[in-house]
Design brief:
Blueprint lengths: L5 E2 L8 E2 L20 E6 L2 E6 L3 H4 L5 E5 L1 E3 L3 E6 L4 E9 L5 E5 L16 E3 L5 E8 L9 E7 L4 H8 L24 E4 L11 H9 L3 E7 L15 E5 L1 H12 L4 E4 L1 H9 L10 E5 L14 E5 L7 H9 L1 H13 L10 E5 L13
Parallel strand pairs: 3-19, 5-14, 5-16, 6-13, 16-18
Antiparallel strand pairs: 1-2, 3-4, 7-8, 7-10, 8-9, 9-12, 10-11, 11-12, 14-15, 15-17, 18-19
Length: about 375
Amino acid sequence: MTAPPLVSHSPGVDFTLPAGSEAAAPPERCGLGRDGVRLLVAREGRAGHHLFRDLPDLLRPGDLLVVNTSATLPAAVEAVRRCGQTVPLHFSTWLDDGDWVVEPRRPDGTGPLGEVAQGETFTLPAGVRLRLHTPYPGPDAEPRRLWRATPSPATSALRYFPRHGRPIRYGYVDREWPLSDLQTVYADQPGGAEMPSAGRPFTERLLVRLMTTGVAVAPLVLHPGVSSPESHEPPTAERFAVPHPTARQVNTTRAAGGRLIAVGTTVVRALETVADRRGRVYPRAGWTDLVLGPDRPARVVDGLITGLHAPEATHLLLLEAVAGTDLVSLAYDEAVRGGYLWHEFGDSMLLFGNVRSGQRLVHGR
């Protein structure tokens, strides 16, 4: 049976996602290269259609791409409840005191397991026992999707999951794919529960082409927690680090009149967390609970490379924070009309905002 179309009820961006628009497999498994996916470019009230490998022709010397080098963990395991029932369990992040944040799922994997209780214990592979304490991020969290839990014996998630886990997979993906398909080519800091997928279409060759045309690339890290495809609640606090060289390069680029292009909503979230009201960025590491939207627009980012997000996804508000509601609506209308594919294996967008008052973009670039 074909799934019904998904309809957005966002007050800002209103679109219907037609059935069959969700990419079920990596493009390489369908005869394309990573950078062979489509790229919709939206700016100043108009949109154009390209391939991702055309990106060097769409940027200009002096622009700076900022990428998220978080590497994806195989963050799903099978967990056994005290009653003997086996359920999927997704790891989201680790806390400073060694506790984990986890999401128990229904046995068929179709959503969060709703009937878990404080104090319940799960047995994981290799004999690790996991005791749930309180809903995360706090005892009054609704829905009760994520839980703070203590592993016994004390166990490093960064060591445990590469040995015993498998990649998280949602219903729109047609089968389990190797972890290598869920990594960007520049991923080198393990810790993300899911891939920062806006960067997936980059290849080593494309990065070299960008740099030879005068476009610089700078890294930061933000480890994405496990998402909520069923309930679309705002993101919880996530661990990040903006290093000194990247902060300096961002500020230098902006001072010289170059544009700052974030590769993914995670990059926007990290940079805007460490920016002052004038848009100057400072190096910092820690946790961010910043939620961006039309009432908290971007101060630093001039453009955003992003995948396509489902209707009602809270990521849409962040896109509006960078590019404005009208341009995001135009882009999504064009993507629907053009038959673009959604989610981590799908097509991409490049949205240009207008962070700095009076800034005008060079025609065609």
